[in-house]
Amino acid sequence: MADKTSWSWDEMTEEFRRLGGVVENLRPGTSGNGSAETGGDAKPAGPGLYAVDPSKEVRLYVPPKLLVPADEVRLENGRLVLAAETSVEPAVRDFFERFQAQFGFGSGAGARCRRFFDELASLPDNVKQHIGPALPPELAAFKAPDDRTLLLRYLRGRAVAFGGKPVMPMVAELLNHGAEQPFFELSQGLRHSGKFAGEVLTRYGGGDAWDAFITLGIATLQVPAFSLPMELRSKNGKSLFIGRRFEASEMLDNVLVPRIERREEGFVLAHALLGHRLVPGLPRAAFRRTMRDRDIGDADESFELLSHLNRIWFLDLLGMLDGRTGTLERTMRAAALCQLTSLSHAIGSAARGEGTASRPN
Predict the structure, then answer these.
(1) Confidence class of residue 180 from pLDDT cuts 50, 70 and 90?
(2) What is the SS3 assignment for 6?
(3) What is the pLDDT of residues 62-119, one digit of tens each?
C-alpha cells in the first residue's frame, strides 16, 4: 500500500488521472498546498495553482465521480473524511481523504479558516456591533468555531453546484478567485482551461466584494454591489425587506430582477443590486422593474435611500478601521473600498451597457 504520510504533487496527479481526471500544465505555489513537489524551476510564491508554461494552454477536468457531495464530508479529529455511508466508491474516498490531508484542509487551509474566526473575535467592540448584522450567524457569534461551524465555512468557500447540489471539486478547489475570470464549465463534470500568464484563476460565485470577504476572506473588486440586509419603511407603513440571496433571480421584460415575496407587512426582495461596473444603468432599471405595481412607495426614492444607507455603512466602517493594522482589519478595509467602488457604478437606468466614460484630465 502507498505511504499515506507523504504525497507529492506528481504522485497525486498521477492517481487523479487514473481516476479519470485531467490536469495539464499546472503546478502549485510554494505554500498552502502541503507536500507539493514539481521539480524543475523554482515554484512561484503563494498558494494556488500556476501555469508551468504560460505559452501553453492549461487543462483541468474533474469527472463527475470525483465531485464529492459536500453533505457527505465530515471533520473528525482535525481531518476531512467522508461519511461512513458515503455514495462514492472506495478509491475516490481514499483519494479525497489523502488529497485533503496533503493539499487541502490539512495543508494549512483549515488553519486559515480557523484563524478567520479568531481574528473576528479579536475585533474592537464597536466594529463587532457594526458588522454583526451584515454577517452570517456563525460569524456574527464572534467566537472560536466548533467542528461543524469550521467545516461549514471551509465547504462554503470551495464547493460548487453540480446536478443541483454542492460538491467538492478535488484539485480544482486549489484555484483562487479572480473577479474577471469565467466560472468553471459544469455540464459534464468540471472543466477549466485557457492560457494564463501566471496564476490560474477562476470566479467563485456572482456576489459582491463584501460577500467575497465573508466567504473567502479576501478583498477583491467585484462587478456587482448588492445591498446589505436591511428594512425600508414607506410612508404608507409598508416595509421592504432586503436580503442577500443572489441566486434568487428571474427575468422580467428582459431584465434580471430579484425574486420578490409579498407578506402582510410588505415585501421581501431576495437581493437588491445597487451598483454594476459593466452596466451602471442596470441597478436602477432592475429595481424599477421589480417595484412596478407594488404598493411600496416611489421606486427611485427607495433606490436612492438604499444606496445612501449602504454607502454610509461602509464609510462608517472605514472610519472605525482607520489606523488599525491587524491583517483582518486591513483586508476588511480593502474590501469596504472595493464595495464602495462598485456601489459608485449606478448611473442612469439603461439595462444594457451603453455610452462611454472618461477620466478627468
Answers:
(1) confident
(2) coil
(3) 999 999 999 999 999 999 999 999 999 999 999 999 999 999 999 999 999 999 999 9
- E-assigned strand segments in the chain: 22-24, 26-28, 49-51, 58-62, 67-69, 73-76, 79-82, 160-162, 165-169, 176-177, 190-194, 199-202, 224-226, 230-233, 239-242, 249-252, 255-258, 260-263, 266-269, 273-276
The total number of structural domains in the chain stands at 2
Range of the domain at 154: 9-204
HSE at residue 246, side-chain half, CA atoms within 13 A, is 16
Do 225 and 276 form a contact (C-beta atoms < 8 A)?
yes
Would 348 be classed as within a structural domain? no
Phi, psi of 89 (to 5 degrees): -75, 160
Cell numbers for 252, please give them. 422580467
Strands in 266-269's sheet, in edge-to-edge order, are 230-233, 239-242, 266-269, 260-263
SS3 22: strand
CA-derived radius of gyration, the chain: 22
Q: Are residues 177 and 315 in the same domain?
A: no
Residues 36, 92: one domain? yes
Q: Is residue 2 part of a domain?
A: no
Residue 174 and residue 142 share a domain = yes
pTM of the model: 0.87
What's the rounded Cα separation, in Å, for the pair 2 and 157? 30
